[in-house]
Each structure stands twice: as C-alpha cells, then as structure tokens.
Amino acid sequence: MRHIISILIENESGALSRVAGLFSARGYNIESLTVAPTEDPSLSRMTILTSGSDEVLEQITKQLNKLVDVVKVVDLSEAAHVERELMLIKVRATGKDREEMKRMADIFRGRIIDVTESTFVIELTGASSKLDSFISALDAGLILETVRTGVCGIGRGDRILKV
Amino acid sequence: MMISGAEIVIRCLQEEKVDCVFGYPGGSVLHIYDALFRQDQVKHVLVRHEQAAVHAADAYSRSSQKVGVALVTSGPGVTNTVTGIATAYMDSIPMVVITGQVPTAYIGQDAFQECDTVGITRPCVKHNFLVKDVKDLAVTIKKAFHIAATGRPGPVVVDIPKDITAQMCAFDYPKTIQMRSYNPVVKGHLGQIKRALQILQEAKRPIIYAGGGVILSDAAEKLTQLARKLDFPVTNTLMGLGGYPATDKQFVGMLGMHGTFEANNAMHYSDVILAIGARFDDRVIGNPEHFCEEKRRVIHIDIDPSSISKRVKVDVPIVGNVADVLDELLKLMDGNFKTDPEVANWWKQIDEWRGRDSLRYKQDSHIMPQYVIEKLYEVTGGNAFVTSDVGQHQMFAAQYYKFDKPRRWINSGGLGTMGVGLPYGMGVLMANPGAQVACVTGEGSIQMCIQELSTCKQYGLPIKIINLNNGMLGMVRQWQEMFYSKRYSQSYVTSLPDFVKLAEAYGHVGMKIEKPEDVEPALRKAFTEHKDDLVFMDFIIDPVANVFPMVAAGKGLTEMILAEDL
Ligand SMILES: Cc1ncc(C[n+]2csc(CCOP(=O)(O)OP(=O)(O)O)c2C)c(N)n1
Ligand SMILES: [Mg+2]
User: Fold this and answer.
1) B22 with B427: CB under 8 angstroms?
2) Which of B38, B60, B172, B421 is deepest in the core (most CB within 10 A)?
3) Is the CB of residue B180 less than 8 Å away from at least one CB of chain A?
4) Is B503 exposed, middle or buried (0-12, 13-18, 19+ CB in 10 A)?
C-alpha cells in the first residue's frame, strides 16, 4: 500500500540524514522525499512517499517517532488529505510540434515557463498520477528532461499537523 | 566568569556527578585533557585502545545505575570507538562519548585526523551532536546525559571541535532540560494495565518472560514481588539474567537458543505471556512462524513502542517504564487477584520438563567448562560480578552461574562483541571498587582486547580472568561440527601464547590449570591469596565440549537438541 508520511522535525543539520539513514538501515523504501522549513523556521516538514504492509508502516512511524529530532509524525493517507507534486518538463518544440506541445500543456493545465526557438519548459502540478499521464501522453522522443519534486501533502479540514 | 570550552566540558561532568571517565588523549582533545589535569574530582582511566574505553564506560554503566563516560580524540580515536558504541546501543546502555573534532574551520577539508564522527556513529547511537558554538556546549552536554539515561537508554556522542574547547564563555549548567521533540513515556496506560490483569487472571499456562529492560529500569525487586503474587514461572533472556533470582523455585532458567528445556517449552506452550522489557529477538524465540503456531495471548510491557509487535503480534501493549508499570500492576492486584487453579497443573508439567535436567553434563578426565563455572559460583558465593566475552564460554557462564541479583552479569547480548570481557571487568571495578570480578572468556576473545592487561596493572584492577581455553573458536567450531559436516574452516587457533608468561609479562599472576581436581583449589587461591592481584587463570578444558540445549538457527523453540540426544 502507498502511504504518505508527514514529519515535523527540528531544523538541525543532519536531520535529513537521520531520516534517510533510518529508511536505508531498516530496508524501508522511499519513493520520494521532500523537505523544507515551515512557517516556523526552527522546524522542517518532510513528506515521504513510501509503501509497505500495515506492519511495516506501523514500524516506520514508530521508528521515526523514536528519532530524537522528530517532533511529530502522521500518516496522511490514513484520512482525508490532498496531495500535489510539481514537475518541470523540457520538450523539443519545433515545427508543428510547437503547436501540439502548447495544446497538450493547455489540456493538462500546465504552463509554459521558458521558451526558446526549439524548446519549451512546461510546469505542471497535480497528483502524481496526473504527471505520469502527461508524460505518457507526449511523444517520448520529444521529452528532453524532466524534474519532479516528489509528493507533498496536507490533511483536509481540521486535520492539522503542528506543534 | 568566563572559562574555556574545555573547562566547561569538565565542569559539566562534575555537575553530572561523573567520578570517572575512560579515555585516550590526542590532538583535538588536548585542551580537554589539560582541563582534566587541573582538577581532581573527575578521575580518568587511561586505556590502551579506545575500543576498551567505550566498553569500560559501558560496563561502568551496566554495573551501577550511572551513565558511563568515554573521552577520545578525533579521527582514529573515534573510529576505534565504533564497536564499543554499537555494542552499547544494541543493549540500550546509557553512555556519553565525548569526541574531539578538528577545528570548525577545517571541517570538511580532509584535515589531519578528521572523520565525519556524526555520520559514522549515527546508525549506532541513540543521538549525536556536533557542537558548533561554545555557547551551546553546556546545554548540549546536559541534553546528552538526559537523552542517554531516559526513555529507552542508549549511547550519545558529543563531537566537539578543538577551537570550541579553547573559546571562552560563561558557564551555566541547566538544572533541567525541556525538548519538544523528546518526551519519553513513563507511566503505562491504566486501561491497558487493567486489561492485562484480567488476562493474567484467566491464564492457565502462563509465563513471565523478562529481559534486560527489568535490569535497566531497576525493577528486579518489583518483578520478584509480582511473580510471587502471581505464582507464575519466570524465564529470563540472556540480558535479563539477575533480574529474577536464579535460585528461586519459580525460575525456569534462561530461554532461547541455549535456554533450558523447561524454559523453552514453557514459553512455547504457554497460553499467556507476560513479556517485560524483552523484545522477542531471533535468539530468543527461534523461528517466529513456528513460535506463532501456538495460540496464546501476549501482554508486552516496554518503554520502546517500536519493540512492541515488531516480531510477534501483541494483544495488550503497555508502553512505559517497566518499574512504573509494575508498580501500577502490583497496586491494582492488591487484594483482588486470584491465580487460576489450573496453574497448579501447569507447574506439574513444568516440573516434568525440569526432570529432563537439560543442563546435565559429565565431568571426566578433561576439565569441563561447565564444571569451572559451577566451581566459580561456589567459590564466589554467587556474589561476583561476572563479565564475559562471546562464544561457548559466555553461554556456559549464563547457564551455570546462578545470578540472584541484577547488574551482576555483564555481557554483550545484542551485538555479541568478542573482546568486551576484560574492559568490562575494568568498568565494573571502577564503579564497584573492592568487588569480586570474574571475567569468563575464551582464548579467542581475550586476545581481542588483551592490551588492557596493561591498564589493569596501572590502576590495580584485580580482575580474575577465567580463560576457558579450548584452543578453538569453540562456538564457531560447534556450528561447523553440527551444520557443516565437521569442516573446521579457520576455527582452530594454533600458536596461542603462553598465557601464564603473558600475564607475568604485564606484571600479573598467571596460573595454568589442567586437571579437574585443581580447578577449585586454583579458584580459591585466586580469590583469597591473590585477592588483590589480577590473576589470569588458563583452564585447559575439553576442546570439543558443546553448548546444549541448542535451538539451531531457523528452528522452533521446541526443536531443541539436547546433550542426551547425541
Ligand atoms: C568481534 C567478533 N568477531 C567474530 C565473532 C564471531 N564469533 C562468535 S563466537 C566466536 C568464537 C569465540 O572463541 P573463544 O573466545 O575462544 O570462545 P569459545 O567459543 O571457544 O568459548 C566467534 C569467532 C564475534 N562474536 N565477535
Ligand atoms: Mg575458545
């Protein structure tokens, strides 16, 4: 099962390596990981996309909680939440492909944020599956480069992760 | 008043009532060693290898209730400590390791004797710190002691760059510390404790399975009270020995890979397990699938939530400090608890298992290792601190020395580190001056930290080394005999030193004992006439004695091989 774990952690140097080290040492997988300071700069918020059985997920949350720098851990996917990922994708845009690329970006509500004679950079946000569909909708030969942030997510309504 | 960072370090140790640190100097801790020189409250034991400093600090902690402290220099000083830190980590031993680091401005430049201490130690510490500002130094050390000793204890490393130890700062040691990210649970959940009590009342084939957590939380007496009230059998893990009196009739012995027939059977066929400060590890329950074939209910008391339901599903988890939870249990039980009458039948079954006498052995022409331990027990009146290394001798010590008190059995359970025995003896003696200390070891293990004989000379540490010399890496040989068709690959140690001469070369007393009838007199002599000497007793034992019972790796707890089967 796919799970999104949100972590509030002291914004200390080495905090990221403690979390990453825990996952590799115990053989948990990380599909994506994003981290940045919160509105309180002494805290960072990390979002990890992982997968595993219920038992494994229980261990992941317990082990994360055991890290001395970790303030709070929640499994966002346990209840209502929204998730988004940002992708920047550089495509070849020449001749008739130029028009086609623009059309595709529009359909997926992407924005073209860099234009040269032969390339576009398209910015796209959404659920990870939407970004996947965009990639598969394009002619693979025209994709020059992609970069994705990994998932970040937040609970809906009153579900708040704060100290 | 402004004092230097180095003086702050020492003042912090004084505030923490540390009376002794184990260490080894070097470039980046010179300021700290200078500050150490200019005071006499904190003693320093100069080891001969940093690994031994950490082992000694670890045993200082295991044998007392205090936090052990080690002090080493950067680079190789630190890398030498890693085995010791990992050993303490696996057994949850509270310890603070202070390491020197190259000056702040040099960090990351591959400076002389630089290593990424925080990175190298991260996977084997409870927590670690790199101090970047002298103003944070005292608070960081306070945090280190706090983290090491609370919750599930463990080693904490404080890495201090040399320039920080030279800078001047006012000293203000915080009395208490608050950390929003670290608030270990102490009290157990009352509702869960009540549920546990209900289940204990219904139990017909109960067992109390108690581990190192009982020792760490100083709950041995409470456990005894509880067991008496319940009238349940008690088994201890290797780490829990001494947490329940071994000579008590409710004690069924150690369980696990080399546990007794009765302990392993009682564990397996129980209908209720009360697990206390133990973690169902692979050497304890054998194959988990086999273990879970029997239906039973499990109550698990542990301070670390991640130890609960990790390997065996638990019905009633109680997260909390063992001593506090036992207190609560005892309080609730008072006057309104009745052990199920069927438990009497369970005891009959257990006595039948006991009748197999699974620790029986025959003493004939060779000295048997079991015999040496039994005599050691007699000669020391069961009162010695026994440290051990890792191998067959360790298992013999665990099986045949009957520990009635906690913190007397000092060994590396989790990591299984050969070489700990001698430095453990040093740590025990520094924490318990005048105590009887026996180090049960093998000719393989003792050579891993043999250099510490020199430290023992310097500080007059009269450890009695019981070298069960089988001329083999015995535990390895046993596995090769049983599972590798006797292909003895690299388990035979030729060219052993003459241990008597070796001991004498270091200024100690050496004895070689080759006949069974000499075992007891030699031990008596060592503990009386040579009370104040380190005595290296080289017992030439049966080279092929094996440890039984044995649950082979991957097998179930009841699939024991007994000595009588062979
Ligand atoms: C540092 C280390 N290296 C290797 C091992 C693997 N090992 C476990 S027991 C053992 C043999 C120990 O031999 P000895 O100290 O002579 O004890 P004996 O089993 O003969 O009593 C070895 C090599 C270990 N536990 N620790
Ligand atoms: Mg040996």
Assistant:
1) yes
2) B421
3) yes
4) buried
At A6, is the secondary structure helix, strand, or coil? strand
Percent share of chain B, pLDDT over 90: 97
Q: What is the tens place of the pLDDT at every residue in B142-198?
A: 999 999 999 999 999 999 999 999 999 999 999 999 999 999 999 999 999 999 999
Q: In whole angstroms, what is the distance from residue B374 CA to residue B399 CA?
A: 10
DSSP state letters, B4-31: EHHHHHHHHHHHTT--EEEE---GGGHH
Cα distance from B276 to chain A (closest Cα, Å)? 19
Residue B364 has pLDDT above 90, yes or no: no
What is this structure's pTM? Answer: 0.97
Residues of chain B in contact with residue A69, where contact means CB-CB under 8 angstroms, are 127, 181
Interface predicted TM-score (ipTM) of this complex, two decimals: 0.94
Contact B248, B403 (CB under 8 A): no
What does residue B464 show for φ and ψ, rounded to 5 degrees? Answer: -100, 110
Min CA distance, B218 vs chain A (Å)?
A: 22
For the purposes of burial, counting CB atoms within 10 Å of the CB of B118, is it exposed (0-12), middle (13-18) or buried (19 or more)?
buried
CA angle B357, B362, B363 (to 5 degrees): 135
Q: Please, are residues B111 and B81 in contact by the beta-carbon 8 Å criterion? A: no
Minimal CA–CA distance to B282: which of B556, B561, B559? B556
**Element of type H or E holding B559:** none
Residue among B23, B2, B363 nearest B170 (CA) = B2
Cα distances (Å, whole numbers) of residue A2 to A16, A84, A126: 21, 15, 17
Residues B220-234, mean pLDDT to the nearest whole number: 98
Q: How far apart are CA B356 and CA B24, in angstroms?
A: 51
